[in-house]
Structures are given as structure tokens and as C-alpha cells.
Amino acid sequence: MSSRLLSGQVMLSATCPSCNQYPLMELKKGGGIAECAGCNDSFGRTSDGGWQLRQSAVDQSSQSQSPLGRSHVATGRRAAETGQQQQPQVASEEEDDSDDDEAAMFAPTSSAAPPTAQPAGSNPARNALGRALLRGWALAPGACPKGCSLPLAIDPTGVGATVCFECEQAEAARPTTTPATTTRAAPTRSTASDQVHVQSLDDAMHRLSNDLAAAVASHGAIDVGKITALAQALEATARAK
């Protein structure tokens, strides 16, 4: 894949409709022709923005796997669209080992059947991996220990740290819940001691009220000392409470 990027090809967010495992690489930006980075099938852009198989990798076995050979194949396909018949280019016997190695990295790690095909651009993890490769990330020579379908990537800013974008997307989509805590008020208990204090306070207030009423009714002098003593007794009772 890195050799394709260096040769000027553009990584697309669409997934190969044939193998549903690898991203498509557009041979020329806006050219409307793309190849799978893994199985090397060729596709043409449809009127609705999708991709339709033009030529399988078996049909391309006589074509060169080098970037120069791919450009000749793309030229021949464009000429065929305009009605001009051209002879296929002579195949080269050399193979691009780097493309084969990186295609092997994208191979599934399990023998299970490939997942159901998804619409183009619907896999955020694969899109994030493609953007990271364009920013200078590199593919690690190992697979995710959790069995994800995408290879690990090496962060250029870290100390050789590897990242699985499929695991990161799954973790980001997981909702976080905080268990609700219920606070219960402590029950209020009435003891015999509390009832005695309340009764004493009520009696002291009653005596003070009667003494004040009697003094006002008789228009006589108010015994300040007695009133003060009752007030102090009332205060002492309140403190004991």
C-alpha cells in the first residue's frame, strides 16, 4: 500500500466490493478507476458514486504488477471507454513484493467467513486507518491480539507504540454509565429523654407566661428577679435539649 501511495495513488474510504477486506486505491485522483490494495481487482466509478468491477485480478494476471504497468493498464481501460481498441501491454515478469507483503497484512487472521458487505465509507475504523497512513503512520508486522480484521498501526510520534483503530472505535462507541446512588435520610427516633426535655421546656414557658399575665392584670410591680429566674430556667432546659 505504501508503494501505491508513493506512486501517486489515492486511498479511498470505500472498501473493495469483491473481498470486503481492503480499501480501494484510485489510480489517479478524479480518474474514476480504482484497484483493491489486497486482491488487485479493478473497479470503475458508477453514476451513483459507487464502484463496479471492471476487471478481476485473474484477468490482470498477464499485466505487470509494477506502478508503470498499472498505469499502462489504466490507459488501456480509458481508451476502451472512448471506443478505441488498444492492444494489451506486454506483461512484466517482475512482481512488486512490497504490495504482496502489505496485502498479506490485511489478510484475515481467522478462518471464519468474511463479514457481510457494508456500504462504501461505512467503516469508521478503516477510514481512520487510511487517514493515519496519509499522516505518516506505518503498518506494524503483526495483527491485533483481539482478532480484529484491521492490522496494527505504528504511531510516528510515540516510542514504537502500536494502535488498533478498530478497538479504538469500539471503545469510543461504548456508552459510559454511572451507577445511581440513593441517599436515605436517617430515621428520627423519639426517646423518653427527649420527651422529658420537651415537657420541662413547655412547663417553664407556661409558668413564665402566667406570671407576666398576672403582673399586667394587677397593674402592680413586676418581680424582675422572679422573671429572670424563670427565663434562666427556660434557657437551661433548652440547652439540655
From TrEMBL:
Family annotation (Pfam families): Auto_anti-p27
Residue segments, region Disordered: 55-126
Acidic residues bias locations: 92-103
Biased composition (Low complexity): 104-126
Superkingdom per UniProt: Eukaryota
Protein name (Swiss-Prot/TrEMBL): Uncharacterized protein
Species, as recorded: Sexangularia sp. CB-2014
